[in-house]
Amino acid sequence: MPCRFSFRFSPLVLTFALAAGVTACAGNVPHDEVAPEEAVDVLYTKGADALDRGAYKEAAKNFAEVDRQHPYSSWALRAEIMEAFSYYKDMDYDKAIRALDQFIELHPGNADVAYAYYLKALCDYERIFDVKRDQAATRRALEGLQGIVQRFPDTEYARDASLKIGLIRDHLAGAEMDVGRYYLKRHLYIAAIGRFKTVVDRYQTTSHVPEALERLVECYVALGMAGEAQKNAAVLGYNFPGSDWYRDAYNLLKKKGLVSDGEK
Length: 264
Description:
Elements: H1 12-23, H2 40-52, H3 56-69, H4 74-89, H5 93-106, H6 113-125, H7 136-151, H8 156-185, H9 189-202, H10 209-222, H11 226-239, H12 244-255
């Protein structure tokens, strides 16, 4: 079943920027900043209105015009972020990332750079579909979210990123399990062991570890490696003693005569 995570985080930048666009008036704009076509506040407000009614392409176009016509105004910085956000809302993630990369490169010390990194990571996060697809976007999202936690640990972006990191790690473990099961079903035990060990070693806190340990028991039994099978069953029994996966592993070992009746 497709695995897509929804985004419900309300960016502070959006609230701040929209408020600035709605409350400003043309009289506050210096004469030398008035565009030959439209005043900066008019352009910005058009973008904000389009964004509010869900016309995201139109919103992005108007915010881009703010930056093009008034590149040295204070409005331009806000418009750059809002242009990227409009592309994000339109699910045009490649354009959003390009706009965000430009903002980060040009304004590395800006107060909104944490949000720019966060929104960039979300562009990859929103492209996570299911475990059967290529996981390149998933890994980029993980790297981006981990970077936010490291760079901006005291922000709400970091708190939200931490929650998403847990979901991504579980998703990546699920992808490894899917490939491992494929190999196991075709009796490609060495290849399957590599996938299941990756889950156990790299994704120890995910929900897939009990099954991975049981699958390792299956693989080692099939290869005649009794010691390795017993070792993984022992780890499974110690950490997940009441799980169905442990019962399956125990019953398999018992069936093969690799465990005595007195053991549990």
